[in-house]
TrEMBL record:
The keyword Membrane applies. Residues 9-160 form the PurE domain. Catalyzes the conversion of N5-carboxyaminoimidazole ribonucleotide (N5-CAIR) to 4-carboxy-5-aminoimidazole ribonucleotide (CAIR). HAMAP family: PurE_classI (MF_01929). The chain crosses the membrane at residues 66-94, 114-140. It comes from Oxalobacter paraformigenes. InterPro entries: PurE_ClassI, PurE_dom, PurE_prokaryotes. Pfam families: AIRC. It catalyses: 5-carboxyamino-1-(5-phospho-D-ribosyl)imidazole + H(+) = 5-amino-1-(5-phospho-D-ribosyl)imidazole-4-carboxylate. GO terms for molecular function: 5-(carboxyamino)imidazole ribonucleotide mutase activity. This is N5-carboxyaminoimidazole ribonucleotide mutase.
Length: 169
C-alpha cells in the first residue's frame, strides 16, 4: 500500500452507540491486522445526524474508500451513511435485546433501490467480514494487500486442515 499521510483514513467505521463497540471492534481489529488505516466513531443517525454528515465529508476529504456502519434495533445508520456518499457502504446488524438482531438485519438489508448497502451477518462475524470485504475491494489495486489477504485465507485453511475431532467417550 502506498505511504498514507497521517490524516488519511481508508475506512470509516461508524456505530450508532458506544455500546456497539463490542461488536464493531472486530472490524477495527481486522483493519489493524491488515495495516489498513481507519477511523472509528459512535454517531447516531437519529441523535447526531448533522455530525454524522460532517464526519462523512471529512472522511472523504481524508481519502476514505468505504464505510462500515453498525447499528441495532431500527438500524438506519448504514442507510443514512449511504445517503451522504457514493462510496461503498457495508452494514453490520448489531444484536438487539429482544429480537437478537433480526430486527437490525431486516432494517439494514431493506434499502430502497438506488441507495445500496451491502449487509453482512449479525454481530462480530459480520463486523470482521465487513472489514475483510472492504480489504478485498482495496486489494484489487494493491498488490501488497492482496498478498496479505491470500496469506490470511491460507492460514484459515491450514487451521481447518490441522483440526482434529475429540475422541469418543
Amino acid at each position: 500500500m502506498a505511504e498514507n499521510n497521517k490524516d488519511e483514513k481508508l475506512i470509516g467505521i461508524v456505530m450508532g452507540s458506544t455500546s456497539d463497540w463490542d461488536v464493531m471492534k472486530e472490524a477495527a481489529k481486522m483493519c489493524r491486522d491488515f495495516g489498513v488505516s481507519f477511523e472509528a466513531r459512535a454517531l447516531s443517525a437519529h441523535r447526531t445526524p448533522d455530525e454524522l454528515g460532517e464526519w462523512i465529508i471529512s472522511m472523504e476529504k481524508r481519502g476514505c474508500k468505504a464505510f462500515i456502519a453498525g447499528a441495532g434495533g431500527a438500524a438506519h445508520l448504514a442507510g443514512v451513511v449511504a445517503s451522504h456518499t457514493i462510496l461503498p457502504i457495508f452494514g453490520v446488524p448489531i444484536p438487539s435485546k429482544y429480537m437478537k438482531g433480526l430486527d437490525s438485519l431486516l432494517a439494514t438489508v431493506q434499502m430502497p433501490k438506488g441507495i445500496p448497502v451491502s449487509t453482512l451477518a449479525i454481530g462480530e462475524a459480520g463486523a470482521a467480514n465487513a472489514a475483510l470485504a472492504v480489504i478485498a475491494v482495496l486489494a484489487i489495486n494493491d498488490d501488497d494487500l492482496k498478498k496479505k489477504l491470500i496469506a490470511f485465507r491460507e492460514k484459515q485453511s491450514e487451521k481447518v486442515r490441522k483440526a482434529t475431532l475429540p475422541e469418543l467417550d
